[in-house]
Design a protein that fits this description.
With 422 residues, this protein is of the alpha+beta class. The protein has helices spanning 28-39, 107-120, 232-246, 295-311, 321-336, 341-351, 354-361, 367-376, 379-396; strands at residues 18-24, 46-50, 62-66, 79-81, 83-87, 92-96, 102-106, 124-128, 135-138, 141-146, 149-158, 171-182, 192-196, 205-214, 217-226, 251-264, 277-279, 401-402, 408-410, 415-417, 420-421. Strands 1, 2, 8, 9, 10, 11 and 17 form a seven-stranded mixed beta sheet that branches. Strands 6-5-13-14-15-12-16 form a seven-stranded mixed beta sheet, sandwiched between helices. It has a three-stranded antiparallel beta sheet with strand order 3-7-4. α1 (28-39) packs across α2 (107-120) and α7 (354-361) crosses α8 (367-376).
Amino acid sequence: MKHLQAGVRDRVPHAGADFETLILGGGLAGLSSAQALIDEGFEGSVCIIEPRTRSDYARDRTWCMWDIGANPLSHLATHRWSRWIVRDEHRVVRAASEQHPYLRIPADRVYDHLLEQAEAAPSVTLKLGTAADRLEHDATGVRVSTEQGVVRGRRALDSRPVRWRSSRTGLLQSFLGWELSTADPVFDSDEVVLMDFRLRAPGVIEFFYVLPFAPDRALIESTVFGSESRSLQYHEERINRYVSNVLNTSVREVEYTEKGVIPMNVDIGREREPRNVRRIGLRGGVAKPSTGYAFLRIQDDARRVARELVTGSAAPQRRMTRARFLDGIFLSFLRNQPDRAPQAFLRLFDRVHADDLVAFLSEAGTLSTDWRVVRALPPAPFLAEVGRLSRDMIGSAPIPRLERRLPSMDPHQGSPQVAASR
């Protein structure tokens, strides 16, 4: 497909500057939303505005998730593992599931697939090589300023990147990954290391994540949960120490590098949105707060938003109140009791059947599944977090402004009823 210099297709199917839906950002969330609109038969015009040109799209990250049967992009996976481990200095917990293997999907395969689908759709216009700068909205629609001029639409799906900062209620997950080869064959290519807590500093939740491709090739990621993101130098030093001190080998070559910061907060995306602007992707808070997993939730959210636009009615959310409540407790535990976190993760993977735990982490489980997970956790520290959260909620609740009159008695309740206004 031939492209204009600015990245706009030369076959523009929609005349004029007005579109039904603007998608701000052409990353995973934006492109998945466009694909979902196509799949749902959305008849309106769609415009994707993205600062990258077509040639700028490359592998910039690796998405991994369990295959739970609700992933429209699972066919793009390059690797599948049915076994995984969690470990520390003293203990190794192994789990396996033939039904729900662990998938690896490189970003470039996803981008290429979704861009090809968008390019082939007459209703979709790609404005690549130009950033969506200022977003304005009113009752009639939205206006987006770009280097190519103003683009108007009835609504906008906003997935533009956000610079995440520390939060009183959440954490930041920062990571650096090296896809490398080693001097010796030290990896079991049939087994993913989800969490290796060796070399962890006291008072910090940090671990290594290893995707093995061959006995001497793997992706090793240094991951830290904290109130602030860690520097690249910090992560680089950790990976080098892990290879030399734990794996007892040396790095022969670093073939690929990826890095990022993922917000872990139950409150992201809960702010009131304008009627015609919808936050999607990480900007909309789709990452699972307690783990940072986002890929499947982005796909689910894209399909739900597309159905809403096609049918005109809200579709049920997969992010249930129950899941958010449990995430809030676990996140509070990670934030306030970091030294207990490794044992909690080990205990989860040891005491919960692999398929149940996969369903829970993927938010595809039932109430009974959630209960089995809750029962596997040590009760005392988590009950402490329930109490802490309750106190925080009470402490942060606005105090009602009372009218200046005496309480009146409700004869049916036998207790004072105070009339209040806010």
